[in-house]
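Co-fold these.
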Amino acid sequence: MKNIKDYNIDELKEELKTLGEKSFRAEQIFKWLYVDKVKSFDEMTNLSMDLREKLKQNYDICNFEIIKKLESVDGTKKYLLGLSDGNAIESVLMEYHFGKSVCVSSQIGCKMGCKFCASTGIPFVRNLSSGEIVEQILAIEQDTNSKISNVVFMGIGEPFDNYDNVINAIKILNNPKGLNIGARHISISTSGIVPKIYQFADENIQSTLSISLHSANNKTRSSMMPVNNTYNIEELIQACKYYIEKTNKRISFEYALAKDNNDNLKDADELIKLLKGMLCHVNLIPINKIENGAYTKSSLENIIKFRDYLNNHGIVATIRRELGSDINAACGQLRRQNINSE
Ligand code: SAH
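Predicted complex below.
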């Protein structure tokens, strides 16, 4: 059956027309789903019994079950959410001074195979639907009885490998009469699927873009991220320049520092050369060692040196604060098996 949360408001209006209903019903349903957060059509009391019956016959309301919740000393919460088909996914809630942010998964598993990421090795199962992306935020809002202000697509999966559903999820999240999370408060992170960067640039969506760069050197980057063999650094940067020109928005480059791999000042020099003059920001992350991982974290001292070197050469760089590392919820640590075996 179709999941009613997969539709943005315009699509829902169309669906209702096919059921012989007026389109304003779509707005009522949106309010029930995303403001009142009801879990059944029976609770939508301003709809006629007849319409509720029709809805029940044609659609499911996907509601995730919280299978497990882990809480970090810093307040970060990691959720294992059960889907209706028996699969499970992870989402993380982080608290910042500006509000609450949810890190969502976009796929069950991932195909990208980045050597340093804990998602590698989980067999790819399927894409998440738009409604399943949205439901992660809804489930966490309900559990914490709070409002989520920001969403980052940095959980399991490659969002640009599930492009259409991710874009539609953003449209659903944006609805001012629904969850009302502005596109500017949503951030997508990609490992660098170049054609989708062009497509995203042409989309009139104000969400921010992060690129997992991790090295300015093709040999090193290919050894960390197989996607670099398909779309190399030159092609990637060309797409990024197009995006910046088209949207006038700053790109955030993510750079996870691994000892003696990509953390020397000569690596910083290559990065400076690559990014010089671009409207961008570099987010430095101490790489998280994963089970059997080949990489070790750079020392904080070295990361600070790397940051200062970039800043002194005209590249704006900051070190990302690590949240939830004690519950394996920090960058790249999401992995279903972990949570199950704890
Ligand atoms: N597939 C997307 C989004 C998911 S990963 C992407 O690649 O961008 C989210 C971020 O975490 C990416 O920047 C990724 O490179 C980073 N990451 C993955 N594993 C990591 C690790 N072990 N340590 C630090 N960052 C990691």
